[in-house]
Amino acid sequence: QVQLVESGGGLVQAGGSLRLSCAASGSIFSINAMGWYRQAPGKQRELVAFITSGGSTIYADSVKGRFTISRDNAKNTVLLQMNSLKPEDTAVYYCNANLRPSGYSTYMNYWGKGTLVTVSS
Known about the structure:
The protein is mainly β and 121 residues long. The chain has no helices and eleven strands. The protein has strands spanning 3-7, 10-13, 18-25, 28-39, 46-51, 57-59, 67-72, 77-82, 91-101, 108-111, 115-120. Strands 2, 4, 5, 6, 9, 10 and 11 form a seven-stranded mixed beta sheet that branches. Strands 1-3-8-7 form a four-stranded antiparallel beta sheet, with no helix packed on it. Strand 4 and strand 5 (46-51) form a beta hairpin. The protein is elongated and about 50 Å long. The termini are far apart.
């Protein structure tokens, strides 16, 4: 069974940094895009950044220049380096992967359970 497991969340002061990691495990044939989304209290889940298998990236305007997404295709992992954090970055961050499990002919979206990032002012 395919699983996405996030790690690296926590409490940090404004201006600080955190690095989130997400590892995809299980019987995976291939992974297309991987990304990070976040959901703040009372708000809808929103895209933070994603990266294709070829390394192309897209960022939300609110994090451009502060966050960097990267991936290790050999390890099926995606990282999110978050610098210059602001209180408004406080949210639960979810990992997402569009992947094809072994034995399947189509790609599907998988989600991690989320990791909480809290930025204090």
